[in-house]
Amino acid sequence: MVSFYDPDEGRKKKRGDREAALKRREKRREWAANLEGEHAIAAAKEAALKQLDRQDRSRGELVSKLKERGFASEAIEAAIDRLEEAGLVDDERYAKMLVRTRFNERGLVGRALVEQLRKKQIPSAIIDVALKEVEHISLEESAREIATRRARATIGLEKQKQVRRLTSMLARKGYPMSVCYSVVNEVLQELDEDE
């Protein structure tokens, strides 16, 4: 016999799953809030290690996650201090790695990088240090590479539309508007000459 999908049953099941997950989370929060002393620190440290198993995180992100799980502030601070001593949490290393990867993979610079780092709750002093990783790179050269790659997709569009799309794309990546306009005009001139 064939069984068919009943949308009403699926909704009930999903709602039940969500409610069960919320109850489990609430129980975990209560459990974490009732812990004291070394037990609280050990549990907070274990929860932080689970977060770090998935991906590297900043101190601020870990504090937020652990507060969300109901741990006391003192236990959170002590647990993260221990992880920092062990070298598992290092905001400066994490910020530098983020800057390098975001630049290499997405072409982000300047304001866009600062915004990414702020989302990760990295302190301003460390952001300044991390941005020095890409300071030596020529903005014009990297913007030209990106604009050249993307310009092919705008072939056949009106000139104004091409300029608008390419400059806004570069601006979203954090390039200054003066660099955006000059690079886009050069790239579009080269593209016109090639045709």
Structural write-up:
It is built from ten helices and no strands. It is mainly alpha-helical and 195 residues long. It folds into three domains: 11-85, no CATH class; 91-134; 139-194. Helix 8 crosses helix 9. The longest helix has 28 residues, at 7-34. The radius of gyration is 24 Å and the shape is flat. The model has no long low-confidence stretch (mean pLDDT 85).
**Terminal CA distance:** 64 Å
In helices, the fraction of residues equals: over 70%
The largest sheet is:
none
Mean pLDDT: 85
Based on secondary structure, the structural category is: mainly alpha
- The number of E-state strands comes to 0
Biased composition (Basic and acidic residues): 8-21
Protein name: Regulatory protein RecX
Domain RecX first three-helical: 44-83
Subcellular location: Cytoplasm
Task: Pick out its properties.
single chain, mainly alpha, flat, RecX_HTH_1st, RecX_HTH_2nd, cytoplasm, Regulatory protein RecX
Secondary-structure map:
Elements: H1 7-34, H2 37-54, H3 59-68, H4 73-85, H5 91-106, H6 110-119, H7 124-131, H8 139-151, H9 159-172, H10 177-194
Helix pairs in contact: 2-4, 3-4, 5-7, 8-9, 8-10, 9-10
What is shown here, in short?
Helix content is 76%, strand content 0%. It is built from ten helices and no strands. The longest helix has 28 residues, at 7-34.
